[in-house]
Amino acid sequence: MTYVFKTTESPVGRLTLVASDAGLTAILWENDDPKRVPLGALVKDDAHPILIEAERQLGDYFAGTRRTFDLPLDFRGTDFQKDVWTALLAIPFGETRSYAEIARAVGRPTAVRAVGAANGRNPISIVAPCHRVIGSNGALTGFAGGLKAKELLLGLEGRQAPA
User: In terms of pTM, does the model score above 0.85?
Assistant: First the structure.
């Protein structure tokens, strides 16, 4: 399968937006590990309607005028990963959840580590808000975009990082 992409600048650095014909497939960080979100061939397409709309909605989000995204999403992963990524979509703007809470939400309360692994492979960062998942003690934990970006995103949503 061939995916289309475009890059866009943001307060958290250059993002690469990737889409299939079905929807937004990935938002990749500037220094993303290519193994984190394995994709096939990528073809640049700055005029693709899904990418244009994703860029517009991300711009609104970073400007503080958007709290939710309305984009077709095309998650590529295992059924368990898709369950975790779908659970991320249910975390309201400005709120956080622990890995244990996500594990319970997907019906696998003992799968906290597996939830962490799936969260780390979330291909559609920001839109599927993996930055809203924190440690059970409230600490910020790993994030593909880096902890500084996670802190910025939570701050943009009115959540303060723990001291």
Answer: yes
